[in-house]
Amino acid sequence: MLKVVVARLVRLVGTLFAVTFLTFGMTALLPGDPVNAILGVETVRDPAVIAEIRADLGLDNPFIVRYFSWLGDAFTGDLGKSWITDQQVMETITQRLPVTAELAFLSIILALIFAIPIGVLGAYKQGKWQDNASSAGVQVALSVPNFIVGIFLIWLFAVKLGWLPASNWSRPSTDGIWANLKTAIMPASALAMTQMAIFSRLIRSDMVSTLQENYILAARSKGLSDRFILFRHALRPSSLSVMTIVGINFGALLGGTVIIETLFAIPGVGFRLINAISQRDIIVIQGITVFIATVYVVINTIVDLLYAVVDPRIRRR
Question: How far is the C-alpha of 31 from the C-alpha of 54, rounded, in Å?
């Protein structure tokens, strides 16, 4: 097990190094001069002022020098300071990350609440009308983009029924948990739709194979109830694929909530990333991208190590 942990950590470091290099390189290749974004469109272009700003920001240094200087600061937790707002990037992330993390976490919880019974039912009733009906519903859920689901939810629950606010965000620390859930439930549900479809398909597929295992037949021969067999003996070893996708999707949702956060006017990390791109705030773009990639890779490494905890067959191998 120690060798596995060391191998995963080595892979983690190599992946993060590649991500930081590619992120820094791609932002450096963006057309135009970032100094123009800093000065604004109505500022007189004084060559001496432009040269001074470039020197202060280190933009006149070679690429490799700028990269390793930025990487050294990033390893200490310093992701730089916004050229537009003069705010530390890490401070921006820590202020907005709880909002995006709550959306991602709540959407995955909602997706699993519906995906587990749908997937288990489809595997247990394989080939029957229950399986066909759930498969048709899953196919529809996969086909509809999450922003379309978000627009429909706004029209139904905010415009027609008036039950929920169409936009804005309430923080649980200041406005209370109930007010926070009222602003979070619609965007989280829009994000959960596709996740639910993916999770239920994986659970059904894996459980169909698991139900053919010899130990399942032995459990049935002992007279154990179908519910006990499905949820106690079959669901756990059938959850490895779902664990992988949950880890991948959670990391991806931290940066993939851009459209939903924009649609619902939610002050999350994705919404700030869109603003940074429109303002050409390269330092913020680099910092948020690397932070999201780091969380993504770390989560997937943890998921790999949790396999042995969930499935005894992997521990024995």
Answer: 16
Amino acid at 195: Q
Q: Does residue 99 sit in the same domain as residue 40?
A: no
Q: Which of 105-119, 154-168, 224-238 has the lowest mean pLDDT?
A: 224-238
The total number of structural domains in the chain stands at: 2
Give me the pLDDT at residue 238, please.
67
Instruction: Give DSSP secondary structure letters for 109-169.
Output: HHHHHHHHHHHHHHHHTTTSHHHHHHHHHHHHHHHS-HHHHHHHHIIIIIIIS--S-SS--
SS3 81: strand
* 33 — pLDDT class (breaks 50, 70, 90): low
Pair 286, 253 in one domain: yes
Helices (H) and strands (E) in the chain, counts: 16, 0
Judge whether residue 124 has pLDDT over 60.
yes
The residue written with tokens 């490895």 in the block is: 240
What is the C-alpha to C-alpha distance for residues 55 and 36, in angstroms, rounded to an integer?
14
CATH of the domain at 192: 1.10.3720.10
Q: What is the mean pLDDT of the chain?
A: 80
DSSP 8-state class, residue 224 = -
